[in-house]
Give the backbone structure.
Amino acid sequence: MISSDKQNPKEITFIEAIKILESNKNDERKNFDKNFFNLLKKNKNHFDEILFTSETEITQRRGKSIERELIEILKSLNNEKTFKDEDKNLCYKILRAFEDGIIARVRAKEIQKELKKTNNNGLEILQVFRKNISDRFLDESLREKIDFSRKREIILSEYLTN
C-alpha cells in the first residue's frame, strides 16, 4: 500500500491502511480539492517505480524461478509408470494452474521446500503438490472465468481529508 502526504509517497502495511480507511455511517462525504489529482499521480508514479524495481530484480536473478522448477518437475511426472489415470489428471491440472500463474509464489516456495524432503518417488512428489494446493485452484471451470491474456492490475486510492 502506498500513502502520500503533500510531499512524498510512502509504503504502508495493509493493516495500517485498514485502520486509516475505517469509517462509519455518520462520516460526511466530501468533494476532492485541487490537490487530489496531483497526489494520485505521485502515488501511481511511486507504484510504477516499485513494480519496475521488483521486475528488474526478478529478471536479473540467475537460475530458474521456483515456479519454472516446479513446472519442470510436474512435466517429468508425465512419464511416471506408477500413476493411475486420476494421478495423471491431477498432475495435468496442477501443471495448468502453475502455467496460468494461479498458484501464489509463497505456496510454490512451501512446495519446493517440502519436495526437498522427498525421496523422488513420483507418488510422494504428487502428494506434496496435492497437500499444498486447494481444489478450488484446480477447478477447470475457474479457467473459463479468468482472462489470462489481459493485464491484471489493482490500484486502490483513497483521498483522506483529516
Remarks:
- The chain has a mean pLDDT of 76.
- The helical segments are 14-21, 35-60, 66-76, 85-99, 105-115, 122-132, 140-145.
- The chain has two domains: 2-23+31-60, 66-145.
